[in-house]
Amino acid sequence: MALQTQLLKKALAEAHPRLAHHLHKLTFSAFSSSSPASAQPSLVFPPFDYHPTPYNGPRADQVWEKRKKFLGPSLFHFYQKPLNIVEGKMQYLFDEDGKRYLDAFAGIVTVSCGHCHPDIVNAVIEQTKLLQHATTIYLHHAITDFAEALASKMPGNLKVVYFVNSGSEANELAMLMARLYTGNLGMLSLRNAYHGGSSSTIGLTALKTWKYPIPEGEIHHVVNPDPYRGVFGSDAKLYAKDVQDHLDYGSSGNVAGFIAETIQGVGGAVELAPGYLKLVYDIVRKAGGVCIADEVQTGFGRTGSHYWGFETQGVIPDIVTMAKGIGNGLPLGAVVTTAEIASVLSQKIQFNTFGGNPVCSAGGLAVLKVLDKEKRQAHCSDVGSHLLERLRALQQRHESITLEPLFFFNAKAITLNLFILKGIFCTDSIV
Protein backbone atom coordinates (compact mmCIF):
# COMPACT_ATOMS: atom_id res chain seq x y z
CA MET A 1 0.00 0.00 0.00
CA ALA A 2 2.91 2.34 0.72
CA LEU A 3 4.15 1.96 -2.85
CA GLN A 4 0.65 2.67 -4.21
CA THR A 5 0.48 5.82 -2.11
CA GLN A 6 3.86 7.02 -3.37
CA LEU A 7 2.87 6.45 -7.00
CA LEU A 8 -0.46 8.18 -6.44
CA LYS A 9 1.15 11.25 -4.91
CA LYS A 10 3.82 11.36 -7.65
CA ALA A 11 1.17 11.24 -10.36
CA LEU A 12 -0.81 14.03 -8.72
CA ALA A 13 2.29 16.19 -8.40
CA GLU A 14 3.21 15.69 -12.06
CA ALA A 15 -0.31 16.49 -13.27
CA HIS A 16 -0.79 19.45 -10.94
CA PRO A 17 2.54 20.88 -9.70
CA ARG A 18 0.71 23.55 -7.71
CA LEU A 19 -0.66 20.77 -5.49
CA ALA A 20 2.74 19.35 -4.62
CA HIS A 21 3.05 21.22 -1.34
CA HIS A 22 -0.27 19.74 -0.18
CA LEU A 23 0.47 16.14 -1.04
CA HIS A 24 2.31 15.31 2.16
CA LYS A 25 -1.02 15.78 3.95
CA LEU A 26 -2.83 13.22 1.80
CA THR A 27 -3.59 9.82 3.26
CA PHE A 28 -5.19 6.98 1.42
CA SER A 29 -6.40 4.79 4.27
CA ALA A 30 -9.94 5.05 2.92
CA PHE A 31 -8.83 3.14 -0.17
CA SER A 32 -7.02 0.37 1.66
CA SER A 33 -8.62 -2.79 2.98
CA SER A 34 -5.48 -3.51 4.98
CA SER A 35 -5.27 -0.25 6.93
CA PRO A 36 -5.50 -0.51 10.73
CA ALA A 37 -8.95 -0.05 12.18
CA SER A 38 -7.97 3.24 13.78
CA ALA A 39 -7.18 4.68 10.32
CA GLN A 40 -10.47 3.66 8.73
CA PRO A 41 -13.06 6.37 8.08
CA SER A 42 -16.27 6.11 10.07
CA LEU A 43 -18.46 5.00 7.17
CA VAL A 44 -21.69 3.21 7.98
CA PHE A 45 -24.08 2.08 5.28
CA PRO A 46 -27.75 2.83 5.82
CA PRO A 47 -30.03 -0.10 6.62
CA PHE A 48 -30.99 -2.21 3.60
CA ASP A 49 -33.68 -4.83 3.82
CA TYR A 50 -31.98 -7.45 1.70
CA HIS A 51 -29.68 -10.36 2.44
CA PRO A 52 -27.58 -11.83 -0.38
CA THR A 53 -27.76 -15.51 -1.15
CA PRO A 54 -24.87 -17.44 0.44
CA TYR A 55 -22.25 -17.94 -2.25
CA ASN A 56 -20.69 -21.35 -2.75
CA GLY A 57 -19.10 -20.83 -6.15
CA PRO A 58 -15.46 -20.42 -7.20
CA ARG A 59 -13.43 -17.98 -5.11
CA ALA A 60 -11.74 -14.88 -6.48
CA ASP A 61 -8.32 -16.49 -6.93
CA GLN A 62 -9.84 -19.41 -8.87
CA VAL A 63 -11.84 -17.09 -11.12
CA TRP A 64 -8.77 -14.94 -11.68
CA GLU A 65 -6.66 -17.91 -12.76
CA LYS A 66 -9.31 -19.07 -15.24
CA ARG A 67 -9.72 -15.55 -16.58
CA LYS A 68 -6.00 -15.21 -17.24
CA LYS A 69 -5.96 -18.57 -18.99
CA PHE A 70 -9.09 -18.39 -21.13
CA LEU A 71 -10.00 -14.71 -21.67
CA GLY A 72 -8.23 -12.12 -23.79
CA PRO A 73 -5.20 -10.37 -22.26
CA SER A 74 -6.54 -6.91 -23.14
CA LEU A 75 -9.07 -7.11 -20.29
CA PHE A 76 -8.19 -4.95 -17.29
CA HIS A 77 -9.43 -4.80 -13.72
CA PHE A 78 -9.61 -2.46 -10.76
CA TYR A 79 -7.65 -3.02 -7.53
CA GLN A 80 -4.57 -5.15 -6.94
CA LYS A 81 -6.84 -7.89 -5.67
CA PRO A 82 -9.81 -7.92 -8.07
CA LEU A 83 -13.27 -8.06 -6.51
CA ASN A 84 -15.33 -11.16 -7.14
CA ILE A 85 -18.80 -9.61 -7.45
CA VAL A 86 -21.46 -12.32 -7.24
CA GLU A 87 -24.76 -10.50 -6.62
CA GLY A 88 -26.40 -7.12 -7.04
CA LYS A 89 -29.53 -5.51 -5.67
CA MET A 90 -30.57 -1.98 -6.62
CA GLN A 91 -27.69 0.38 -5.67
CA TYR A 92 -25.59 -2.29 -3.96
CA LEU A 93 -23.20 -5.04 -5.03
CA PHE A 94 -22.09 -8.02 -2.94
CA ASP A 95 -18.82 -9.94 -3.10
CA GLU A 96 -18.15 -13.62 -2.47
CA ASP A 97 -18.16 -13.03 1.31
CA GLY A 98 -21.44 -11.12 1.31
CA LYS A 99 -19.71 -7.77 1.83
CA ARG A 100 -21.85 -4.89 0.57
CA TYR A 101 -20.56 -2.15 -1.75
CA LEU A 102 -22.27 1.03 -2.96
CA ASP A 103 -22.14 0.95 -6.77
CA ALA A 104 -21.41 4.50 -7.85
CA PHE A 105 -20.16 3.36 -11.28
CA ALA A 106 -23.32 1.58 -12.42
CA GLY A 107 -21.54 -1.06 -14.45
CA ILE A 108 -19.81 1.58 -16.61
CA VAL A 109 -22.87 3.84 -16.70
CA THR A 110 -25.21 1.01 -17.64
CA VAL A 111 -27.42 0.10 -14.68
CA SER A 112 -30.00 2.88 -14.99
CA CYS A 113 -32.70 1.41 -12.74
CA GLY A 114 -30.72 -0.49 -10.12
CA HIS A 115 -29.32 -4.01 -10.13
CA CYS A 116 -31.92 -6.74 -10.62
CA HIS A 117 -34.86 -4.37 -10.52
CA PRO A 118 -37.89 -6.63 -9.99
CA ASP A 119 -39.98 -5.08 -12.79
CA ILE A 120 -37.21 -5.63 -15.35
CA VAL A 121 -36.31 -9.11 -14.07
CA ASN A 122 -39.96 -10.16 -14.23
CA ALA A 123 -40.39 -8.82 -17.77
CA VAL A 124 -37.32 -10.74 -18.95
CA ILE A 125 -38.35 -13.96 -17.20
CA GLU A 126 -41.92 -13.89 -18.46
CA GLN A 127 -40.82 -13.30 -22.07
CA THR A 128 -38.13 -15.99 -21.81
CA LYS A 129 -40.76 -18.50 -20.74
CA LEU A 130 -42.78 -17.81 -23.90
CA LEU A 131 -40.22 -17.17 -26.64
CA GLN A 132 -36.52 -16.64 -26.15
CA HIS A 133 -35.60 -15.71 -29.69
CA ALA A 134 -37.21 -14.85 -33.01
CA THR A 135 -35.69 -12.69 -35.69
CA THR A 136 -37.40 -9.76 -37.38
CA ILE A 137 -38.31 -11.88 -40.40
CA TYR A 138 -41.31 -12.85 -38.25
CA LEU A 139 -43.71 -10.59 -36.38
CA HIS A 140 -43.56 -10.17 -32.63
CA HIS A 141 -45.20 -7.50 -30.52
CA ALA A 142 -42.24 -7.00 -28.12
CA ILE A 143 -40.04 -5.19 -30.64
CA THR A 144 -42.84 -2.97 -31.97
CA ASP A 145 -44.10 -2.11 -28.48
CA PHE A 146 -40.58 -1.17 -27.44
CA ALA A 147 -39.92 0.85 -30.61
CA GLU A 148 -43.17 2.77 -30.17
CA ALA A 149 -42.36 3.62 -26.54
CA LEU A 150 -38.80 4.67 -27.41
CA ALA A 151 -39.94 6.83 -30.33
CA SER A 152 -42.38 8.61 -28.00
CA LYS A 153 -39.38 9.87 -26.02
CA MET A 154 -37.77 11.46 -29.08
CA PRO A 155 -38.32 15.04 -30.30
CA GLY A 156 -39.16 16.15 -33.83
CA ASN A 157 -39.29 13.56 -36.59
CA LEU A 158 -36.95 11.10 -34.87
CA LYS A 159 -39.43 8.23 -35.00
CA VAL A 160 -37.77 5.27 -36.81
CA VAL A 161 -35.84 2.80 -34.67
CA TYR A 162 -33.17 0.23 -35.54
CA PHE A 163 -32.23 -2.11 -32.69
CA VAL A 164 -28.67 -3.41 -32.29
CA ASN A 165 -26.62 -4.97 -29.49
CA SER A 166 -24.18 -2.31 -28.31
CA GLY A 167 -23.12 1.32 -28.52
CA SER A 168 -20.29 0.53 -30.92
CA GLU A 169 -22.69 -1.21 -33.25
CA ALA A 170 -25.14 1.69 -33.01
CA ASN A 171 -22.46 4.19 -34.00
CA GLU A 172 -21.31 1.94 -36.85
CA LEU A 173 -24.87 1.90 -38.22
CA ALA A 174 -25.28 5.66 -37.77
CA MET A 175 -22.09 6.32 -39.72
CA LEU A 176 -23.28 4.01 -42.50
CA MET A 177 -26.60 5.85 -42.65
CA ALA A 178 -24.88 9.23 -42.81
CA ARG A 179 -22.65 8.19 -45.70
CA LEU A 180 -25.42 6.54 -47.69
CA TYR A 181 -27.88 9.38 -47.16
CA THR A 182 -25.52 12.22 -48.04
CA GLY A 183 -23.39 10.50 -50.65
CA ASN A 184 -20.30 11.84 -48.87
CA LEU A 185 -17.56 9.93 -47.03
CA GLY A 186 -15.96 12.36 -44.61
CA MET A 187 -16.96 12.10 -40.95
CA LEU A 188 -16.19 14.65 -38.25
CA SER A 189 -15.70 13.74 -34.62
CA LEU A 190 -14.34 15.61 -31.60
CA ARG A 191 -10.93 15.16 -30.09
CA ASN A 192 -11.13 13.44 -26.70
CA ALA A 193 -14.20 11.52 -27.92
CA TYR A 194 -15.10 7.87 -27.45
CA HIS A 195 -17.59 6.23 -29.82
CA GLY A 196 -16.64 2.55 -29.65
CA GLY A 197 -13.93 -0.04 -30.11
CA SER A 198 -14.96 -1.77 -33.33
CA SER A 199 -12.76 -1.45 -36.40
CA SER A 200 -14.84 1.45 -37.75
CA THR A 201 -15.75 3.27 -34.55
CA ILE A 202 -12.13 3.27 -33.45
CA GLY A 203 -11.78 5.86 -36.19
CA LEU A 204 -14.43 8.06 -34.58
CA THR A 205 -12.77 7.64 -31.19
CA ALA A 206 -10.04 10.18 -30.47
CA LEU A 207 -8.20 8.89 -27.43
CA LYS A 208 -4.87 7.18 -28.07
CA THR A 209 -5.37 4.68 -25.23
CA TRP A 210 -8.23 3.09 -27.19
CA LYS A 211 -6.85 3.18 -30.72
CA TYR A 212 -4.86 0.65 -32.71
CA PRO A 213 -2.68 1.53 -35.73
CA ILE A 214 -5.19 0.48 -38.39
CA PRO A 215 -6.70 2.36 -41.35
CA GLU A 216 -9.52 4.64 -40.23
CA GLY A 217 -10.87 5.99 -43.49
CA GLU A 218 -12.22 9.49 -44.03
CA ILE A 219 -12.56 10.52 -40.39
CA HIS A 220 -11.23 13.79 -39.00
CA HIS A 221 -11.18 15.14 -35.46
CA VAL A 222 -11.88 18.79 -34.69
CA VAL A 223 -11.00 20.61 -31.47
CA ASN A 224 -13.18 19.52 -28.55
CA PRO A 225 -14.99 22.48 -26.95
CA ASP A 226 -13.80 21.91 -23.40
CA PRO A 227 -15.07 24.97 -21.48
CA TYR A 228 -12.35 24.77 -18.83
CA ARG A 229 -9.19 23.39 -20.40
CA GLY A 230 -9.95 23.99 -24.06
CA VAL A 231 -7.84 26.33 -26.19
CA PHE A 232 -10.78 28.74 -26.54
CA GLY A 233 -12.17 28.41 -23.04
CA SER A 234 -15.96 28.40 -23.18
CA ASP A 235 -16.21 30.41 -26.42
CA ALA A 236 -18.45 28.20 -28.56
CA LYS A 237 -18.09 30.47 -31.61
CA LEU A 238 -14.33 29.96 -31.82
CA TYR A 239 -14.68 26.19 -31.50
CA ALA A 240 -17.36 26.23 -34.21
CA LYS A 241 -15.03 28.27 -36.40
CA ASP A 242 -12.50 25.44 -36.15
CA VAL A 243 -15.11 23.13 -37.69
CA GLN A 244 -15.73 25.59 -40.50
CA ASP A 245 -11.99 26.01 -41.05
CA HIS A 246 -11.60 22.27 -41.41
CA LEU A 247 -14.37 22.13 -44.00
CA ASP A 248 -12.85 25.07 -45.90
CA TYR A 249 -9.21 24.02 -45.81
CA GLY A 250 -9.10 20.31 -44.92
CA SER A 251 -11.88 18.81 -46.99
CA SER A 252 -13.76 19.07 -50.26
CA GLY A 253 -16.25 21.30 -48.48
CA ASN A 254 -18.74 18.50 -48.05
CA VAL A 255 -19.12 16.05 -45.20
CA ALA A 256 -21.21 12.97 -44.47
CA GLY A 257 -21.77 13.65 -40.79
CA PHE A 258 -20.69 15.02 -37.46
CA ILE A 259 -20.90 12.92 -34.30
CA ALA A 260 -20.50 14.06 -30.71
CA GLU A 261 -21.27 13.04 -27.18
CA THR A 262 -23.07 15.81 -25.34
CA ILE A 263 -20.81 15.11 -22.40
CA GLN A 264 -17.57 13.32 -23.20
CA GLY A 265 -17.70 10.28 -20.94
CA VAL A 266 -14.56 8.19 -21.39
CA GLY A 267 -12.65 11.43 -21.96
CA GLY A 268 -13.30 12.52 -18.38
CA ALA A 269 -16.93 13.70 -18.09
CA VAL A 270 -16.27 16.87 -20.08
CA GLU A 271 -19.21 19.12 -20.92
CA LEU A 272 -19.27 20.93 -24.25
CA ALA A 273 -19.11 24.72 -24.37
CA PRO A 274 -22.64 26.17 -24.10
CA GLY A 275 -24.25 26.70 -27.50
CA TYR A 276 -21.60 24.72 -29.38
CA LEU A 277 -23.83 22.06 -30.94
CA LYS A 278 -26.34 24.57 -32.26
CA LEU A 279 -23.58 26.42 -34.14
CA VAL A 280 -21.88 23.27 -35.43
CA TYR A 281 -25.09 21.55 -36.49
CA ASP A 282 -25.86 24.52 -38.72
CA ILE A 283 -22.36 24.43 -40.26
CA VAL A 284 -22.48 20.67 -40.87
CA ARG A 285 -25.91 20.74 -42.46
CA LYS A 286 -24.86 23.54 -44.80
CA ALA A 287 -21.95 21.30 -45.84
CA GLY A 288 -24.39 18.54 -46.77
CA GLY A 289 -23.90 16.45 -43.63
CA VAL A 290 -26.12 15.03 -40.95
CA CYS A 291 -25.72 15.49 -37.21
CA ILE A 292 -25.41 12.47 -34.91
CA ALA A 293 -25.83 12.59 -31.14
CA ASP A 294 -24.12 9.81 -29.22
CA GLU A 295 -26.39 9.32 -26.19
CA VAL A 296 -24.85 6.05 -25.04
CA GLN A 297 -23.81 7.59 -21.71
CA THR A 298 -25.93 10.74 -21.42
CA GLY A 299 -29.34 9.44 -22.40
CA PHE A 300 -32.35 8.29 -20.36
CA GLY A 301 -32.45 11.16 -17.87
CA ARG A 302 -28.90 10.93 -16.57
CA THR A 303 -28.23 14.66 -16.84
CA GLY A 304 -31.19 15.30 -14.56
CA SER A 305 -32.34 18.42 -16.38
CA HIS A 306 -33.31 16.61 -19.60
CA TYR A 307 -34.12 13.11 -20.85
CA TRP A 308 -31.52 13.36 -23.64
CA GLY A 309 -28.14 15.01 -23.32
CA PHE A 310 -28.45 16.88 -26.64
CA GLU A 311 -31.48 18.72 -25.25
CA THR A 312 -29.15 20.59 -22.89
CA GLN A 313 -27.69 22.24 -25.99
CA GLY A 314 -31.08 23.12 -27.52
CA VAL A 315 -30.67 21.01 -30.67
CA ILE A 316 -32.42 18.15 -32.47
CA PRO A 317 -30.01 15.75 -34.20
CA ASP A 318 -30.70 13.87 -37.41
CA ILE A 319 -29.61 10.55 -35.88
CA VAL A 320 -29.40 9.49 -32.24
CA THR A 321 -27.44 6.48 -30.99
CA MET A 322 -27.97 4.87 -27.60
CA ALA A 323 -27.03 1.82 -25.52
CA LYS A 324 -25.96 1.13 -21.90
CA GLY A 325 -28.83 2.61 -19.83
CA ILE A 326 -31.38 1.56 -22.46
CA GLY A 327 -31.32 -2.02 -21.13
CA ASN A 328 -30.13 -1.80 -17.51
CA GLY A 329 -27.47 -4.39 -18.35
CA LEU A 330 -29.08 -6.23 -21.24
CA PRO A 331 -27.02 -6.33 -24.48
CA LEU A 332 -29.09 -3.70 -26.22
CA GLY A 333 -28.54 -0.61 -28.35
CA ALA A 334 -30.54 1.45 -30.80
CA VAL A 335 -30.34 4.01 -33.57
CA VAL A 336 -33.24 6.43 -33.94
CA THR A 337 -33.58 8.65 -36.99
CA THR A 338 -36.08 10.12 -39.43
CA ALA A 339 -38.05 8.08 -41.94
CA GLU A 340 -36.21 9.80 -44.78
CA ILE A 341 -32.74 8.91 -43.53
CA ALA A 342 -33.79 5.40 -42.48
CA SER A 343 -35.03 4.67 -45.98
CA VAL A 344 -31.50 4.58 -47.41
CA LEU A 345 -30.89 1.22 -45.77
CA SER A 346 -33.65 -0.34 -47.86
CA GLN A 347 -31.33 -0.20 -50.89
CA LYS A 348 -29.84 -3.47 -49.67
CA ILE A 349 -30.61 -6.04 -46.97
CA GLN A 350 -30.05 -4.57 -43.50
CA PHE A 351 -30.53 -7.33 -40.95
CA ASN A 352 -29.46 -7.91 -37.37
CA THR A 353 -29.93 -11.40 -35.96
CA PHE A 354 -30.30 -10.32 -32.35
CA GLY A 355 -31.41 -6.71 -32.76
CA GLY A 356 -34.91 -6.48 -31.31
CA ASN A 357 -34.71 -9.89 -29.67
CA PRO A 358 -38.01 -10.47 -27.78
CA VAL A 359 -36.32 -10.89 -24.39
CA CYS A 360 -34.18 -7.75 -24.76
CA SER A 361 -37.13 -5.78 -26.14
CA ALA A 362 -39.33 -6.80 -23.21
CA GLY A 363 -36.56 -5.79 -20.81
CA GLY A 364 -35.93 -2.50 -22.61
CA LEU A 365 -39.61 -1.58 -22.47
CA ALA A 366 -39.64 -2.37 -18.75
CA VAL A 367 -36.66 -0.02 -18.29
CA LEU A 368 -38.55 2.88 -19.90
CA LYS A 369 -41.53 2.23 -17.65
CA VAL A 370 -39.38 2.10 -14.50
CA LEU A 371 -37.60 5.34 -15.40
CA ASP A 372 -40.97 7.08 -15.64
CA LYS A 373 -42.70 5.37 -12.72
CA GLU A 374 -39.87 6.01 -10.28
CA LYS A 375 -39.05 9.49 -11.63
CA ARG A 376 -35.41 8.59 -12.14
CA GLN A 377 -34.61 11.75 -14.11
CA ALA A 378 -35.72 13.92 -11.18
CA HIS A 379 -33.74 11.65 -8.88
CA CYS A 380 -30.59 12.24 -10.93
CA SER A 381 -31.16 15.97 -10.66
CA ASP A 382 -31.67 15.85 -6.89
CA VAL A 383 -28.75 13.57 -6.05
CA GLY A 384 -26.43 15.20 -8.57
CA SER A 385 -27.18 18.68 -7.26
CA HIS A 386 -26.61 17.50 -3.69
CA LEU A 387 -23.29 15.93 -4.67
CA LEU A 388 -22.05 19.07 -6.37
CA GLU A 389 -23.18 21.22 -3.45
CA ARG A 390 -21.19 19.11 -1.00
CA LEU A 391 -18.14 19.04 -3.27
CA ARG A 392 -18.22 22.82 -3.62
CA ALA A 393 -18.34 23.09 0.16
CA LEU A 394 -15.17 21.00 0.31
CA GLN A 395 -13.67 23.27 -2.32
CA GLN A 396 -14.15 26.27 -0.05
CA ARG A 397 -12.34 24.51 2.78
CA HIS A 398 -9.38 23.07 0.87
CA GLU A 399 -7.05 25.12 -1.28
CA SER A 400 -5.86 22.00 -3.09
CA ILE A 401 -9.27 21.60 -4.75
CA THR A 402 -9.15 23.85 -7.78
CA LEU A 403 -11.95 25.80 -9.45
CA GLU A 404 -12.05 23.52 -12.44
CA PRO A 405 -15.16 21.37 -12.71
CA LEU A 406 -13.09 18.22 -13.07
CA PHE A 407 -9.48 17.52 -12.43
CA PHE A 408 -7.77 14.23 -12.78
CA PHE A 409 -4.30 12.82 -12.62
CA ASN A 410 -3.06 10.16 -14.92
CA ALA A 411 -0.51 7.51 -14.08
CA LYS A 412 -1.06 5.35 -17.15
CA ALA A 413 -4.44 3.91 -16.25
CA ILE A 414 -5.39 5.83 -13.08
CA THR A 415 -7.94 8.60 -13.18
CA LEU A 416 -9.33 10.50 -10.20
CA ASN A 417 -12.36 12.74 -10.67
CA LEU A 418 -12.83 15.09 -7.75
CA PHE A 419 -15.85 16.72 -9.28
CA ILE A 420 -18.20 14.17 -10.83
CA LEU A 421 -20.55 15.67 -13.35
CA LYS A 422 -24.19 15.83 -12.29
CA GLY A 423 -26.01 12.66 -13.26
CA ILE A 424 -23.05 10.89 -14.83
CA PHE A 425 -21.20 7.88 -13.36
CA CYS A 426 -22.79 8.37 -9.99
CA THR A 427 -26.36 9.43 -9.53
CA ASP A 428 -28.13 7.01 -11.82
CA SER A 429 -27.38 4.01 -9.62
CA ILE A 430 -27.75 5.62 -6.20
CA VAL A 431 -31.37 5.19 -5.15
Automatic annotation (TrEMBL):
GO terms for cellular component: mitochondrion
Superkingdom to which the source organism belongs: Eukaryota
PROSITE patterns referenced in this protein's UniProt entry, alphabetically: AA_TRANSFER_CLASS_3 (PS00600)
EC number in record: 2.6.1.44
UniProt GO BP: glyoxylate catabolic process; L-alanine catabolic process, by transamination; photorespiration
UniProt-annotated location(s): Mitochondrion
GO molecular function per UniProt: alanine-glyoxylate transaminase activity; pyridoxal phosphate binding
UniProt catalytic activity: glyoxylate + L-alanine = glycine + pyruvate
EC category: transferase
Family under the similarity heading: Belongs to the class-III pyridoxal-phosphate-dependent aminotransferase family.
CDD domains assigned to the protein according to its UniProt record, in alphabetical order: OAT_like
Keyword check for Nuclease: no
UniProt organism field: Cannabis sativa (Hemp)
Cofactor(s) in the UniProt record: pyridoxal 5'-phosphate
Protein name as catalogued: alanine--glyoxylate transaminase
Subunit structure and binding partners: Homotetramer.
Keywords, sorted A to Z: Aminotransferase, Mitochondrion, Photorespiration, Pyridoxal phosphate, Transferase, Transit peptide
A Pfam family this chain is assigned to: Aminotran_3
